[in-house]
């Protein structure tokens, strides 16, 4: 998986820093997500709010420097993507065995959880496919679905027409869903 | 870029272009375009699929967060909590994480103290809803447990974010197995340590809680050797409704799980016994047993010494261990670890007892399996099986507890206690069977099953059997199941007799009294009477609760069979005994006095009744007992008794209080209130307070007519009171109507309702009314019909009988048989003289008859003397009865006139007129006498 989104101004030429940056963002995101969940009933989270909060924190932090806001969002999106996959893998691992043996697996919750987890991992694979097929569309998905930016905002950020972005999104969505079947 | 990649790139581009083009077209256009531009079938396929997906909903239509939430509803990151405040405590650090919850160290600092606690917070994980439920259950469980060896719950709640938490005693210790290793404890010492654990679990079992997850890591021992049992997270509350249709998720630690836990069978206290058994095995051998061992554990010593599990080590590293374990400990372990729950110890308590026996070098109960196994299995796990409702079971346990406490046979006491307790716990064990609601048996079935066991269980000694059946009988009787109760009590009686139970034992007396109560309640009064009379000497001699009950019962039965004097004597003896046995100021004593006082009143022994009821009422107030219906009834009885005794001063206050109380107690019109109002109305009638009496009766009649109907005996009684009211104000036409109806209804139902006395009185009242209407033949018929009843039912020497005689005297007068009339009057007066009750009303009425008869016989002086006496009596006891006084004064005026004393006559008239009674309330004769000039 690429760590630096193409077409976006690079943070710095050195690969290490961008990895570190990403890790930092990811770590922050997890912490915020955790705190947010702790503070609300039933873990109702708002993606945009989450990322926004992340942005606030990050931009006030001198250690993390983005040369371009778009870059941050790209990282945030990547981080969210990670978050989803991580959870999905954890969930599936837990199902397979481990410390506690679940002899009976009752509850609709459990079933939904597993299905969601499997789908989430499927999405990851599908995204990778999309990246080969249509890079820009993949990025739109990231920014729109994972980072929570509106199509308008994405259009502005990438300096493209709204119509183009709309089309990108539609194609990406159809493609991914098709892959997920 | 390679050729391949280029090719792929092109394909993708074309795909994308095609998609973009097609997206805005309708179906027909699409068909056309595809046909024209796409040659490859696969590509066509792909495009169609993509277009279909465009239309449909899918994964990406749900936000990523929603998906993330479904996968993991909200993993609570521990670091997020450090430093936060939960309740009074601050989270310091993470202690550990289990599958369901995270445990943190919390602390609270005050001015001069520092408290450390363990804060358990639910990790909202995959099974959040289920686990939340389990968590809250743990909290309920812990709240109910208070034991030095169970980690105490300090606080519990839900944070603002909606996360449940528990604050518990912080146990700074190590798992029990490690503790034993660290301190190199001997076999004996380990057994002693283990005993403490068992007792702690026993405490849980006694609270109907099965731990279900007993293992060394849940049993910590602190540095100073204090054992604490933790983690009731998946503990089960037995009496809880089993709302999980498929059974709770099988959450448990596999290595310590009982066979039935693994196979999904029912969880009972024996499940905990298994867990304890595993722990003991580990403590003694250093290794865990494998499932349900069939070989003696001591035979595994060699293997044990070779392998070592991380935390545990055997007490000694030699073959001496084998010797130490062989025999009793072997058997104990095998019993605890038996495959089938019924073969294990029924509870942790039983387990502990056997360990104690081992430690005290007494024979243990555990035997090798073959001999212990019973042919008939009591517990059936599925349909048709018997589980006990916990509530009823608790009642049984409580009742058995009482039985044991009363057991006096010292030698057998321990055995009896053990056997009974085991029996009960066995019964209790089946209560844990997770049967769904509709399969749970009725209390009746329970009792039958329990009785069957009591009879069939080979391990019970005869004394215990008898005792159990007795207790079951008592409980059943209390539940109102008379048939079942009789069978059980009779069985118990037979067994006690066969055992040669001492006649003077408390238990025996209690048993007979229970039987007596049963007979009394099922209307076999004569038998009950005989039964109690036979043991009267013991009842008098013993100073015990059964003796009090027995005397009370005998008082009632004697009263029922018409032996009023004896009933009263016995009641008084019962009252005194109750005061001694319960203590004069106890609730029991007060209630006994109340009951006995009412009993005396029912047999018309009013002075004796007052002697019991007055102190009872005073103490009731003093002890601040609830002012309920019972109290109101007592007040009424007291009021009535005081009326009869002539102590009118407090009567009214009592009536009013009783009525006010009843209005408060009953939220809708109630027959008892009507009765109270009726009694008050009669009292008011006697005081000539007609309007008040009328209003009371109106209300009472309205209630009874609505609640009981016209044809009810109690409605009839009210009509009788109404008749008397109208008669008193000389409206005899109306009075006849009511009296007629009253006698009619009463005569229809008197026998079955036991209202024969009331019927006789109603007829007497009717006769009086008829005489006032000059219908002497009809009146005579009424009097004849009650001629034998009156003396028989009320006794010769009674106010009622005297009144009856007075009525006969009046009738004789009307028939111009003055001589006979005089005789009647004298007889009546003689009776009153013999009574210790004043019966002033009747006395005055008799004096009137006597006066009129004397006049008719020409003896005016004697007549005037009678009237003077009557007036005196009236003035001193009933000063407000102006109508009655006016009537007497009118008679006086007539007599003085006839005797040729016009001045005296005028004086009488003047006094009468000064009372200002309207003529409408007087009889015709009286009105004329007071207004001789027709003004």
Structural description of this entry:
The complex is a heterodimer of chains A (181) and B (935). By secondary structure, chain A is mostly helical. Chain A is built from 7 helices and no strands. In chain A, helix 3 packs across helix 5 and helix 4 (108-133) runs antiparallel to helix 5. The longest helix of chain A has 28 residues, at 69-96. In chain B, helix 15 crosses helix 18 (462-478). Chain B has 935 residues and is mainly alpha-helical. At the A-B interface, helix 1, helix 3, helix 4, helix 5 and helix 7 of A face helix 1, helix 3, helix 4 and helix 5 of B.
Q: How many beta-strand elements of chain A?
A: 0
Helix content of chain B: 55-70%
Strand content of chain A: under 5%
Query: Radius of gyration of chain B, Cα only, in angstroms?
Result: 44 Å
Low-confidence stretches of chain A: 1-16, 39-45, 97-108
Written as H for each helix and E for each strand, in order along the chain, the element string of chain A is HHHHHHH
Q: N- to C-terminal separation of chain B? A: 144 Å
The structure class of chain A reads mainly alpha
Which two chains form the greatest contact, residue counts included?
A-B, 59 and 54 residues
The shape of chain A, in one word, is: globular
What's the total number of strands of chain B?
11
**Alpha carbon gap, first and last residue of chain A:** 22 Å
Coarse morphology of chain B: elongated
Mean of residue pLDDT values of chain A? 67
- Tell me the strand order in the biggest sheet of chain B: 1-2-3-4-6-5
What is the overall number of helices of chain B? 42
Biggest sheet record of chain B: 6 strands, antiparallel
Biggest pleated sheet of chain A = none
Give the low-pLDDT segments of chain B.
237-250, 369-418, 428-441
The residue-averaged pLDDT of chain B reads 81
Fraction of residues in helix of chain A: over 70%
């Amino acid at each position: 998986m690429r760590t630096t989104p193409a077409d976006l101004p690079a943070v710095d030429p050195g690969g290490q820093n961008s990895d570190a940056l990403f890790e930092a963002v990811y770590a922050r995101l997890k912490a915020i997500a955790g705190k947010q969940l702790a503070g609300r009933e039933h873990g109702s989270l708002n993606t945009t709010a989450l990322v926004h909060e992340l942005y606030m924190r990050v931009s006030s932090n001198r250690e993390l420097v983005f040369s371009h806001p778009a870059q941050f969002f790209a990282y945030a999106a990547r981080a969210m993507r990670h978050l989803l996959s991580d959870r999905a893998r954890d969930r599936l691992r837990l199902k397979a065995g481990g410390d506690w043996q679940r002899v009976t697996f009752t509850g609709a919750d459990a079933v939904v959880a597993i299905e969601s987890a499997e789908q989430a991992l499927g999405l990851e694979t599908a995204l990778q496919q999309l990246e080969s097929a249509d890079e820009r569309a993949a990025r739109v998905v990231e920014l729109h679905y994972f980072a929570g930016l509106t199509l308008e905002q994405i259009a502005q950020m990438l300096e493209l027409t709204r119509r183009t972005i709309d089309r990108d999104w539609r194609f990406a969505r159809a493609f991914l869903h098709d892959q997920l079947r | 870029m390679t050729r391949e990649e280029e090719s792929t790139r092109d394909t993708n581009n074309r795909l994308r272009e095609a998609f973009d083009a097609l997206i805005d077209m309708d179906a027909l256009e699409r068909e056309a375009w595809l046909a024209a531009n796409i040659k490859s079938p696969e590509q066509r396929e792909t495009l169609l699929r993509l277009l279909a997906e465009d239309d449909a909903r899918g994964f990406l239509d749900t936000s990523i967060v929603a998906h993330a939430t479904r996968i993991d509803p909200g993993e609570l990151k521990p670091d997020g909590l450090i430093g936060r405040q939960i309740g009074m405590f601050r989270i310091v650090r993470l202690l550990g994480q289990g599958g369901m919850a995270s445990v943190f160290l919390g602390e609270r600092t005050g001015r001069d103290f520092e408290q450390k606690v363990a804060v358990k917070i639910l990790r909202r994980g995959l099974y959040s809803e289920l686990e939340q439920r389990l968590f809250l259950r743990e909290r309920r469980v812990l709240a109910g447990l208070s034991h030095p060896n169970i980690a105490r719950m300090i606080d519990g709640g839900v944070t603002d974010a909606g996360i449940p938490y528990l604050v518990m005693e912080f146990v700074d210790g190590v798992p029990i197995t490690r503790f034993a290793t660290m301190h190199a404890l001997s076999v004996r010492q380990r057994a002693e340590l283990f005993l403490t654990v068992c007792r702690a679990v026993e405490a849980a079992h006694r609270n109907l809680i099965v731990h279900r997850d007993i293992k060394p890591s849940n049993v910590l021992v602190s540095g100073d050797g204090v054992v604490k049992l933790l983690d009731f997270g998946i503990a089960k509350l037995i009496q809880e409704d089993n709302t999980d249709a498929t059974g709770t998720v099988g959450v448990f630690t596999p290595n310590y799980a009982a066979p039935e836990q693994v196979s999904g069978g029912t969880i009972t206290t024996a499940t905990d016994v298994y867990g304890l058994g595993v722990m003991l095995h580990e403590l003694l051998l250093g290794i865990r047993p494998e499932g349900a061992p069939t070989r003696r554990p001591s035979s595994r010593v060699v293997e044990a010494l070779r392998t070592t599990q991380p935390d545990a080590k055997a007490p000694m590293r030699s073959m001496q261990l084998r010797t130490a374990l062989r025999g009793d400990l072997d058997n104990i372990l095998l019993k605890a670890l038996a495959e089938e729950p019924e073969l294990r110890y029924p509870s942790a308590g039983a387990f502990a007892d056997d360990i104690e026996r081992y430690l005290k070098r007494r024979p243990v109960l555990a035997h090798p399996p073959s001999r212990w196994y019973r042919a008939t299995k009591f517990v059936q796990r599925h349909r048709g099986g018997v589980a006990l409702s916990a509530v009823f079971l608790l009642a049984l346990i409580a009742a058995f507890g009482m039985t044991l406490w009363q057991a006096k046979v010292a030698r057998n006491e321990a055995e009896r206690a053990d056997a009974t307790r085991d029996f009960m716990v066995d019964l209790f064990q089946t209560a844990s069977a997770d049967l769904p609601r509709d399969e749970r048996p009725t209390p009746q079935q329970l009792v039958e099953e329990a009785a069957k066991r009591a009879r069939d269980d080979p391990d019970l000694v005869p004394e215990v059997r008898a005792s159990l059946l007795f207790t079951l009988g008592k409980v059943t009787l209390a539940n109102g199941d008379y048939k079942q109760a009789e069978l059980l009590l009779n069985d118990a009686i037979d067994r006690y007799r066969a055992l040669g139970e001492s006649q003077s034992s408390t238990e025996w007396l209690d048993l007979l009294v229970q039987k007596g109560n049963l007979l009394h309640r099922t209307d076999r009064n004569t038998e009950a009477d005989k039964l109690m009379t036979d043991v009267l000497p013991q009842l008098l001699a013993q100073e015990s609760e059964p003796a009090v009950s027995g005397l009370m019962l005998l008082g009632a039965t004697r009263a029922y069979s018409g032996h009023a004097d004896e009933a009263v004597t016995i009641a008084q003896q019962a009252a005194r005994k109750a005061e001694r046995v319960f203590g004069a100021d106890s609730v029991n004593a007060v209630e006994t006095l109340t009951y006995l006082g009412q009993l005396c009143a029912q047999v018309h022994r009013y002075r004796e009744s007052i002697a019991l009821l007055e102190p009872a009422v005073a103490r009731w107030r003093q002890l601040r007992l609830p002012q309920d219906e019972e109290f109101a009834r007592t007040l009424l009885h007291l009021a009535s008794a005081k009326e009869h005794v002539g102590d009118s001063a407090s009567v009214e206050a009592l009536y009013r209080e009783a009525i006010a109380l009843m209005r408060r107690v009953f939220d809708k019109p109630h027959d008892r209130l009507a009765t109270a109002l009726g009694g008050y109305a009669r009292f008011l009638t006697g005081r000539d307070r007609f309007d008040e009496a009328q209003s009371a009766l109106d209300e009472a009649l309205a209630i009874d007519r609505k609640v009981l109907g016209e044809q009810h005996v109690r409605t009839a009684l009210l009509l009788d009171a109404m008749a008397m009211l109208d008669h008193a104000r000389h409206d005899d036409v109306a009075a006849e109507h009511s009296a007629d109806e009253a006698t009619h209804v009463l005569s229809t139902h008197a026998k079955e309702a036991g209202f024969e006395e009331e019927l006789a009185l109603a007829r007497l009242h009717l006769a009086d009314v008829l005489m006032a209407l000059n219908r002497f033949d009809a009146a005579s018929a009424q009097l004849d019909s009650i001629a034998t009843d009156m003396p028989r039912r009320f006794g010769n020497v009674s106010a009622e009988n005297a009144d009856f005689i007075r009525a006969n005297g009046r009738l004789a007068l009307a028939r111009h048989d003055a001589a006979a009339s005089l005789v009647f009057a004298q007889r009546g007066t003689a009776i009153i003289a013999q009574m210790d009750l004043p019966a002033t009303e009747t006395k005055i009425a008799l004096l009137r008859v006597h006066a009129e008869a004397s006049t008719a016989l020409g003896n005016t002086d004697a007549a005037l003397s009678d009237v003077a006496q009557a007036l005196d009596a009236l003035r001193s006891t009933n000063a407000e009865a102006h109508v009655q006084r006016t009537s007497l004064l009118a008679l006086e005026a007539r007599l003085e006139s006839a005797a040729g004393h016009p001045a005296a006559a005028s004086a009488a008239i003047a006094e009468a007129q000064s009372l200002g009674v309207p003529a409408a309330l007087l009889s015709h004769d009286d009105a004329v006498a007071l207004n001789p000039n027709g003004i």
